[in-house]
User: Fold these one by one.
Assistant:
Number 1:
Amino acid sequence: MRKLGVHTSIAGGLHRSVERAHALGCTTVQIFSHNPRGWAVKSISQEEAAIFKSMKTHFDVSPVYIHTSYLINMASRDSGLKKKSINLLVIEMDRADTMGADYVVLHPGSASGDDQYVSRSRAVNALNEVAAMGQWNAGLLIENTAGEKGDISSTIENLSDIINGVKESLIKGICIDTCHAFAAGYDIRNDKGIQNFSDKIEKYIGLDNVKLIHLNDSKGDIGSGVDRHEHIGIGQIGSKGLKIFICYSSFRNIPLILETPKKRESDDSHNLRKVRKMIRSLGD
Ligand SMILES: [Zn+2]
Ligand SMILES: [Zn+2]
């Protein structure tokens, strides 16, 4: 069975995220392990961790992905911000291990005003500092970004440069976001475009290293560089494109997490229903 989930809220306790995922019929989940817009992070009690783990086992929700805070910027020029980013990423990894989460997902960072090679090597150095600060069971996944100004990770080659520069023990693979890939100029709406994209991944990173797909439609057009997610099927990629993508041989066994907009209570179940229909049409 294809692993399918959404990003759920931890309001009311960490374990509530797993309950919410289960209630939506999900078999995998992504969460923030704390408020993603604040630097201050309260530690997880043993009791909280135990409840989270037993809930995850009880409902058989796995893998569990933790999305890192939006404040982290490994490519920052500001040494204070860089230091805080390194410390917070270490905390994210520690929390993942405490909760028994499988992966931590990171946007590698951005730094407008600098050459992207300079920014990227700064991020690589910062990630190596993190790698030197511990060993974790959870694997770090770096995510492709949409190509907004200052982005250092919108192409497969960019991701490969980061992976190759960082000590092996830390980064365990990549997360592909369909909205970001499309906004960065990859035409994933048809077989030919998806094959090109898949070939690139195989050549530079290896398809085995794709550990997660963020399945989002895109408000922005192809190559727009705009990171705005849209409901499944009503964006610029469209149902047909998303369906071809998730059913493509290279990607058909990779867990899917939706990060689609949530304005109404029914939004998640509505988007999940559309994706389930796409998966069913494949016959597994
Ligand atoms: Zn994403
Ligand atoms: Zn995004």
Note: Residues 4-280 form a domain with the TIM Barrel fold (CATH 3.20.20.150).
Number 2:
Amino acid sequence: MTAFAIDIGATKIAACRVGPDGMPSEPQTVPTPAVGVWQACVDLLDSVVGGDPVEAIGISTAGPLDGETAGPINIPEWAPGFGLGDAARERYPDARVEVVLDGACAALGEYAFGAGRGATDLLGMIVSSGVGGGIIRSGTVMGGRTGNAGHIGHIPVPDSADVCACGGIGCLEAVASGPSSVRWARANGWTGDTGIELARAAKSGDEIALAAMARAGTALGTAIAGAAALLDIDLVVIGGGFALSGGPLWDPLETALRRHAGLRYLRDLDVVPALLGSGASLAGGAALVGDGYRRWPI
Ligand SMILES: [Zn+2]
């Protein structure tokens, strides 16, 4: 079978061929244009396809979704709603098309090829410019009614009145993303600009940076404890640039998780770093059209 995967993000689009073993091959990437996003996807896919028949395409897209219509907040041209599934079927009429949220694809990528190999039920998370996620149960990506299951970034966390980009108040993302943590640190006297600088400052002992990391880590651990209690999972995998912040973020996360996760079935929950980096969601797109993985609902 000739299958392909594409990952459509706010800053770049990546596409690859799916190997016979279901693994993604080396991707090609282009920057996401301000206008003509779908044409850029088609041009990139055509370049990867190289004239072969297209039998299946696994599409990972920024969200939220409404079924197979993508309305990514961070891709303005598509924000009102772009009929991604229909557009893909029109362009590749003989292909099986799967459209799945990027957070869920990243979770599936780690489950199939990365830090989640061997797990049965997994929560994948991305902690970066936002906080995203996805839920995998026995090889099946949980989509939910509209395709948005796994949005852990919009679980409210205690003691926060921070306004979230989604319109809600006190969301995990509004506390624990890189930009949210930088904003909090700057409001408390820190003078840097980026999450990478904040992580570096925390590692070198800057007290405000350490407090910002502790605040983010505590919120993450608290949200994970709640999600794990609800889902009864065996593993949490965390990727994304801000998750590379090391002990200043991970130690408070672990402390908060253990404080809140009291039930016996939560005591051996493992939380580990992701392995696939920014390639996780493309790998998940590949897994969707390879063998052995499914999405639910179909
Ligand atoms: Zn929110």
Note: The chain has two domains: 3-105+279-296, 117-274.
